[in-house]
Fold:
Amino acid sequence: MTHDAILDAIAFDPQGLVPAIAQQHDTGEVLMFAWMNRAAVAETLATGEVCYFSRSRDRLWRKGEKSGQTQRLIELRLDCDADALLLLVDQTGVACHTGRRDCFFRAARDGTLQEIAAPLVSPEQLYG
Amino acid sequence: MTHDAILDAIAFDPQGLVPAIAQQHDTGEVLMFAWMNRAAVAETLATGEVCYFSRSRDRLWRKGEKSGQTQRLIELRLDCDADALLLLVDQTGVACHTGRRDCFFRAARDGTLQEIAAPLVSPEQLYG
Structure:
């Protein structure tokens, strides 16, 4: 199946990127936020495994390629302005490189940031 | 209460912006994706009503200022890299300017984009 119609509909920014929100499909947890380019979206749709674009490493970033904490794509959705993606996924293990289930583990409370979730695994276990 | 400690922790991009995901606090719906600058985050924390920064209008955008479809802030969370925000909100009415509950109403299915939600109100009702 070709995905050109979907890829062509996405309004990538001048750097060729689109923001992507990963949400656990059944619990609704917002797991992480990252970026994709056209090749990353194409690979994700073709393989069913989420692939992002790492701006710091300037290359495709197959989620879980080192840690094994992959994201299986359940559904890709596009927003009204076509410039943001919502990825409904099934997360294996933890989404955050800190070993936490999701990346949004600091909450603004009482004028400070408070950690509201602890790592479930250590980064050493994830990355060796 | 001052929120400087929170504001100082956010890694705004070179344009002074940070991506923000709005999620309905009780249902888990991802409502929309937008951007905030430091002033928008400061106002949101101070007032408890979500204020974004509109890149197209180059000014603060108090969500619902025209439509009445405001977002009350329940909690602001920061991700591991401090460069993305998750806003847990209580959405009045609909989040999307098209009149839909959320902005992610197009799903990639069978090689095309399919609309999976209909407007609940007309844009004319929202914006006159």
About this structure: Residues 38-47 of chain B form the longest helix (10 residues).
